[in-house]
Amino acid sequence: MRQLVFRAAARLAPALIVVLAGCKSGASRAPDLGTGGAPPELAITGASGLAGSTVSYRLDNSDGGVTSLVWAGPDAVWKTVLVTYRDLNLQVTSLNSERHQLSSSVARAPRTLGGKPLREYVDCGNGIAGPRVDSYDVAYALVTTVTPAQGDSTAVHSTLVATATSRGGTSTAPVDCSTTGRLEKRIAQLVALKLGR
Q: Distance between CA 197 and CA 76 in Å, rounded?
């Protein structure tokens, strides 16, 4: 299940799990993890910068994601995931160290992410001017969870969802984007590389 909701900031329900005003970092208690390592449901809300509206995502296991195994202990992998987010310039907007879960929620993504074009990671289809990811405002939510796995390995599970909104000022609905899976895999690959695994 995924929802992207635009609404006035004043109308936000206080029951939302994470509220990020003015793009400041926030933290909340993450939900219990499902068997696949992904959160069964996680709400992320962030200030969009688009006419005072907000972006709200709800993720669950049906959103898939990419799970990779790293041959190191969970604590070492967790610390390296934090460094990897920093190195990729992924803004951490929610962090739960106890559950080894963090997220990056951005309402207007830069055209490059971690030194690569955004189109490497997200596919929003094509419009009149070509790929929407190159000309639309792209909002995304990325969640990474670190959990113990079999033997001496640790699972790094990342889920990325995104939408694109036209910059033309029209009131068209946001377009759902799909992930290429490359960012999720790159996070785990960089973690393994940094740990020498």
A: 12
| DSSP class per residue in 5-55 | EEEEGGG--TT-S--BSTT-----PPPPP-TTSS-S-EEEEEE--STTEEE
**Average pLDDT, stretch 57-76?**
77
The answer to whether residues 40 and 95 touch, using CB atoms and an 8 Å cutoff, is no
Cα gap 97→115, rounded to integer Å:
27
Question: Alpha-carbon dihedral of residues 99, 105, 109, 115, nearest 10 degrees?
Answer: -10
pLDDT at 69 over 90: yes
Asked whether the predicted pLDDT for residue 155 surpasses 80, the reply is yes
| Rounded Cα gap, residues 54 and 8, in angstroms | 7
- Are the beta carbons of 144 and 188 closer than 8 angstroms? no
Which range, of 57-71, 124-138, 149-163, 179-193, averages the lowest pLDDT?
Answer: 57-71
User: What does the DSSP 8-state code read for residue 153?
Assistant: -
Contact assessment for residue 40 and residue 65, using Cβ atoms and an 8 Å cutoff: no
Indicate the SS3 state at residue 182. Answer: helix
CA distance 99 to 104: 16
The structure tokens 């000022």 sit at 169
Compute the residue count for the chain.
197
Return the structure tokens found at 140.
Answer: 């995304």
